[in-house]
């Protein structure tokens, strides 16, 4: 991934995270934007050059079809974000993208990959289960007062 792709992905990913926070945490739009922005800045203090973080662009016919962000430390990976652009969804490309990612991790000697799926993203949950991912716990939250 190049710097310009990183900026494009960052905007798309941030918007997705805002939507997730509003839908699954019931945050107001303003609070979701603030929290998502803080989270991204904390996770990627050096942007694309943040240590142990890796970014990939998945291409189809020489065109960006999706983006991926993962961290890899001590041969354990965490998939922070995977995104297939809408015009490429529903064509089996997500499967190909994940397969390529898992192959890359295997070649790098990783023994494990973890991820988090939003509870309302049943399509992704089903796909991850097809690859053998299993549920290891649940994130839970309770809003106290107002934002």
UniProtKB/TrEMBL annotation:
PROSITE patterns: GNAT
A Pfam entry, by short name: Acetyltransf_1
One function term, GO molecular function aspect: acyltransferase activity, transferring groups other than amino-acyl groups
Domain N-acetyltransferase: 1-147
Cross-referenced PANTHER family: L-AMINO ACID N-ACETYLTRANSFERASE
Name of the molecule in the record: Acetyltransferase (GNAT) family protein
